Amino acid sequence: MIFFFGTRSTQVAAHQAKTNCAYCQQEAVWLFVYQHYFHIFWIPVFPLWKSTVSSCGHCKQTLTKKAFLPELQEDYIKVKQQAKTPWWTFSLLIAAVLLVVGSMILAKLA
Description:
The chain is α+β, with helices and mostly antiparallel strands. Helix content is 29%, strand content 37%.
């Protein structure tokens, strides 16, 4: 069954952390911030929430925010504040507002 609505996510930020991996002790930890959004017919309607994961480039261990070490929490706060919500996640809302405003202008002209 194909669903024409739901949620998706896109990566909005990536940052190499200044901490070592808890598993392999290599300095190859990356933080990735994802923006989740609601879509209809694969067109973004509005953003929902942001999530952050860390991934080691060496051993590929991936952790969610709940499992971050205190050193990684500091980098997480900085990266999440810098990650901006993309404007195109409001695409369908922007199109709807433009349609309403355009129809109001045309109604006044007629």
